[in-house]
Design brief:
This protein is mainly alpha-helical. It is built from 15 helices and two strands. Helix 1 packs across helix 2, helix 3 crosses helix 4 and helix 9 runs antiparallel to helix 11.
């Protein structure tokens, strides 16, 4: 199909929004945001204010809706801007905490495996046979081989002085406590998933999670969250693709709020709770979670007839009671 949507000037973009029922109280400010942030990025924040029409029903009788080219009554351009700014600050605060968690996990893994062998990460025997030999689709490489390629590729691309120093002085292979500093969160998460169960349990236990499979899923989800933040993508009401598992009831009381609540697990607030939990383990005296709470309660009010709230993020009732405890 040929793409048939023409280029539009900023003035034309704003005129289109007004024609679809969006109010613009400050034209100059609206044009500035379109010029600085862009129509497409902002559209993710005014999308919830569009009128949705029922176009059919699925096999279970549930309505199938489609967004119309109109906004609900009283929608204002500033409603989308305030959501965008709230989301931007949310991602910035999460990036701070995710950095602390990632660095702590690097130390945890390098310390545990490095005690046995400085080059433990290069040896297949270090890892669980079943986990390391997994294959997906038609790719002839197993998990260990793909991870090795990714790991070595990141080492080669590193421009850090400490990498050059080690290679010049000790040879091309980097010990795990050096190599780990060249990896991203995804590489770290994949290595953890290949580790032997006792090793996974030991690290998971440090974070108060006795089930290694739950903790493994947490790391995958945090890597997903990190990528959303790193690419400046919309977060506040996103449907989470890589959803985390939950420990059994009573293990972590705050997690109990999400049990048997698939609609909450599919939203990002649970990931915020995981970040809160792990950050407090990494930095017991941190005030990060209280600063994030202070930001969350500033969720912007809207003019639009359709009202949005932290409920759209998947926040359970009474979340503030355990958040700062």
């Amino acid at each position: 199909m040929a793409y048939d949507r023409p280029w539009k000037s900023f003035e034309e973009q704003l005129a289109l929004l007004k024609a679809r029922g969006m109010g613009v109280a400050d034209k100059a400010a609206a044009l500035e945001y379109l010029e600085r942030v862009g129509y497409y990025r902002l559209s993710a924040y005014w999308y919830p204010f569009r009128v949705f029409e029922t176009v059919g029903h699925d096999r279970h009788g549930r309505p199938i809706t489609k967004a119309a080219d109109q906004f609900v009554h009283d929608t204002q351009f500033v409603d989308a801007v305030r959501l965008y700014l709230f989301d931007k600050e949310l991602r910035l605060r999460l990036t701070d905490a995710l950095e602390r968690i990632e660095i702590a996990l690097r130390v945890d893994i390098a310390y545990l495996l490095g005690e046995r062998d400085a080059f433990a990460h290069l040896h297949r025997a270090t890892f669980h046979p079943s986990f390391a030999r997994r294959r997906f689709g038609r790719d002839p490489r197993d998990s260990f081989e793909k991870w090795q390629e990714r790991c070595l590729g990141m080492e080669r691309r590193s421009k850090e002085d400490f990498v050059k120093h080690y290679r010049q002085k000790h040879g091309p292979r980097l010990p795990i406590w050096v190599a780990v500093e060249t990896w991203d969160f995804g590489t770290l998460s994949q290595l953890f998933a290949m580790m032997k169960v006792p090793d996974q349990q030991r690290i998971a236990g440090k974070y108060g999670v006795p089930d290694w499979e739950v903790f493994q899923s947490w790391l995958r989800s945090l890597n997903y969250l990190r990528n959303v933040c790193a690419h400046h993508s919309r977060l506040w009401n996103r449907n989470v693709i890589d959803q985390p598992k939950l420990p059994e009831l009573g293990i972590l009381p705050w997690c109990d709020e999400f049990h048997d609540q698939p609609q909450l697990i599919a939203r990002p607030f649970l990931l915020l709770g995981i970040v809160r939990h792990m950050t407090r383990v990494v930095c017991p005296d941190t005030g990060w979670h209280r600063r994030l709470q202070a930001h969350l309660v500033t969720f912007p009010a809207q003019h639009a007839q359709r009202q949005l709230s932290l409920d759209d993020m998947g926040a359970p009732l009474g979340w503030q009671q355990w958040w700062s405890a």
